Amino acid sequence: MKILVINSGSSSIKYQLLDMTDESVLAVGLVERIGEEMGHLETKMLPGKPQERKIELKQPIANHHEGMLAAIGSLTDESQGVLQNASEIDAIGHRVVHGGEDFHDSTIITPEVIEALKENIPLAPLHNPANLDGIEVAMELCRDAPQVAVFDTAFHQTMPRRAYMYALPYEYYQKNKVRRYGFHGTSHKYVATETARLLGKPLKECNLITVHLGNGCSITAVENGVSIDTTLGMTPLEGLVMGTRCGDLDPAIHLFLHKQKGMSLEEIDAVLNKESGLKGLCGMNDMRDIHAAADKGDERARLAVEVQTYRCRKYIGAFMAVLGRVDAIVFTAGIGENDTIVRELSLQGLEVLGVRLDQAANDQRSKEPFRISSEDSAVSVFVLPTNEELAIARETLQIVQGT
Ligand code: ADP
Questions:
Q1: How far is 370 from 382, CA to CA, in rounded Å?
Q2: Which of 127, 338, 367 to mutate to test the pocket of ligand 1 (most atoms within 8 A of CB)?
Q3: Is the beta carbon of 244 within 6 A of some atom in ligand 1?
Q4: Is 389 a pocket residue for ligand 1 (Cβ < 6 Å)?
Q5: d(C-alpha 394, C-alpha 131), whole Å
Q6: Whose CA is nearest to atom 23 of ligand 1?
Q7: Model confidence pLDDT, tens digit, residues 231-247
């Protein structure tokens, strides 16, 4: 069974083709700068294998239709490709950012599903239309392959109302769907599933805290295998300090900025999403650069690390209180998998809650999961690489086989 995973953004399409007989990657690619003067495509075939090869194209790519045609064209290229023709793709899994309250699980894409996705556009005005573009083009180009939507929000639909309700007038929830949804669900679910495997316990018996620290950051409390709280909210802006997003904020700051600086709501929203977080604090949003600057004595870089890891620690502690018993805390994504300092500072002071770090273990680097808690730690702590494409492919396989 060959599954194509598609993550369609506003000006890019990321894709990965997997052979699910052994979960190996047949190809991985990116079409970017769609709609710009000059577009770019790069597809790597059999990455990491001796037969690795790539196709690179620089040409105008007017829209998602052309982008997807070029992507499939590269996969089926006569000399370099890994497929004879597109009909060898057995199913397509699409990453969809916002499923609102309509989707608790991945689902086969039908006309009704497309309608529901359109209805949820107000909840994710930037992401859902781009995801829909990808879906519509893929359905047109690969008519025989079942298409599955895998939602960033679905895993968190198990949150109880005490966790997802904002304390706002109730009709905002009823009429406008204003509530917390949470994101990164595919990653949190994948990491939780893999951690249960490491613990040798069924997922439905595991209480976990999954810490996803990438460009976007979120922490999820998993009770008996399901999400019961998470730090991202109605949009991916709440909670932790992220690369360019502010995370938690006093909502009265909007009015203050408007009055004091004459900023419009749109300007404020853009600043909170694109100019805040680590970038806002120190001018850089890549943790590697921030550590290098901090090492040279840059106070603002030190401040950024301090604020980010303090917020992380605060939420880990809060979720320990929410869960009571915690089997494991798991770090994942770019920062979580690689940054020994952020992990150490995020766990500092949690000894009182049974979390003990093994310094030497924390200093290792590996592409495989590893434990960073000491032998006498009541709570295990792991580092576990996330793999959202594989997670989407597995979900797609499961849904296709179940129908
Ligand atoms: P995304 O959320 O876009 O999927 P990733 O999970 O790939 O992002 O994380 C990207 C971030 O991870 C980078 O911006 C950088 O801050 C951080 N990162 C990547 N490698 C390292 C490293 N070796 N040490 C510290 N941080 C890293």
A1: 6
A2: 338
A3: no
A4: no
A5: 19
A6: 338
A7: 999 999 999 999 999 99
| Dihedral sign (CA 267, 270, 272, 277) | negative
Cα dihedral 279, 283, 286, 287 sign: negative
Which residues, including other chains, have CB under 8 Å from residue 256's CB and lie 6 or more apart?
Answer: none
pLDDT band at 272 (very low <50, low <70, confident <90, very high): very high
Checking if the pLDDT of 403 tops 80, the result is no
DSSP-derived 3-state class of residue 180 = coil
Whether the CB of 335 sits within 6 Å of ligand 1? yes
> For residues 44 and 52, what is the distance between their CA atoms, to the nearest angstrom?
7
Q: Decide if 39 contacts 51 (C-beta within 8 A).
A: no
Q: How far does residue 336's CA lie from ligand 1's centre (Å)?
A: 8
Strand partners, 221: 209, 229
Stretch 195-219: mean pLDDT: 97
Please give the average per-residue pLDDT across 372-397, as a whole number: 97
Comparing C-alpha atoms, which of 332, 331, 336, 325 is closest to residue 378? 325
CA 250 to ligand 1 centroid distance, Å: 27
200 C-alpha to ligand 1 centroid (Å): 29
Sign of the alpha-carbon torsion through 65, 71, 74, 75: negative
Strand, coil or helix: 6 = strand
3-state helix, strand, coil in the chain (%, to 5): 45, 20, 35
Which residues are part of the catalytic machinery? 152
Write the CB contacts of 399 (distance below 8 Å, at least 6 apart in sequence): 106, 107, 108, 148
- Residue 34 in contact with ligand 1 by CB distance below 6 A: no
Residue 303 in contact with residue 277, Cβ under 8 Å?
no
d(C-alpha 386, C-alpha 380), whole Å: 18
Tell me if residue 217 falls in helix, strand or coil: strand
Specify the pLDDT at position 127: 87
b/e per residue 341-367 (b: at least 16 CB within 10 A): ebbebbbeebeeeebbbbeeebeeeee
Atom of ligand 1 nearest to the CA of 291: 25
